[in-house]
Design goal:
It is a single chain. This protein is α+β, with helices and mostly antiparallel strands and 171 residues long. It has two domains: 58 residues, 2-Layer Sandwich (Double Stranded RNA Binding Domain); 79 residues, 2-Layer Sandwich (Ribosomal Protein S5, domain 2), CATH 3.30.230.10. Helices cover 27% and strands 35% of the residues. It is built from four helices and eight strands. The chain has a four-stranded antiparallel β-sheet with strand order 1-2-3-4. Strands 5-6-8-7 form a four-stranded mixed β-sheet. A hairpin with a 2-residue loop joins strand 5 and strand 6. The protein is elongated and about 70 Å long. The N and C termini lie far apart (79 Å).
Length: 171
């Protein structure tokens, strides 16, 4: 009998993977041909390092694993940096994309990620631990993910706001 059968054969000193990949949605598409139906798949994938960087990618292929792999590669190429304030975001922000609208608000320590679906996946991939969110309008996964990314792009740290104020001429 093997001991610790629930543990895999892993090196305890090995580093964790650089990026966390989360599959938000898999879509199946059917094309009707002479012999029947041909299926293809698209996978919406969010990647992040949980230290303030996140990206999204859409992979399409004839098989699901290949679509996920392509989506992961594309999401890792499209990374953007997000300013964080501890484990939350610096200020309230609203993002919109297509028909989806997402409101993000900072939350106190211990609140957790109050979000659903694609919004939660994006926020967890960034590394945000405490945030409140509300999604309005379209609830399609692509719209929610893109609206969340739009909101995160609008975030500014206190230092960035201070530089903007100093650079603006006094009227």
């Amino acid at each position: 009998m093997r001991q610790n059968s629930f543990k895999r054969d892993r090196d305890p000193n090995a580093e964790p993977p650089e990026f966390v990949n989360k599959v938000v949605h898999i879509n199946r598409c059917a094309k009707v041909v002479k012999g029947g139906r041909r299926f293809s798949f698209s996978a919406l994938v969010v990647s992040g390092d949980q230290k303030g960087r996140v990206g999204i990618g859409l992979g399409k292929a004839k098989e699901v694993p290949e679509a996920i792999r392509k989506g992961s590669e594309r999401s890792e190429k499209s990374l953007m940096r997000v300013p964080l304030k501890g484990t939350t975001i610096p200020h309230d922000v609203v993002g919109q994309a297509d028909g989806g609208h997402v409101i993000l608000r900072p939350a106190s320590e211990g609140t957790g990620v109050i979000a659903g679906g694609g919004v939660r996946d994006v926020l967890e991939a960034v590394g945000i631990k405490n945030v409140l969110s509300k999604s309005l309008g379209s609830n399609t996964p692509g719209a929610m993910v893109n609206a969340t990314l739009d909101a995160l792009r609008k975030l500014r740290s206190a230092e960035q706001i201070q530089r903007i104020k100093e650079a603006a001429p006094a009227a």
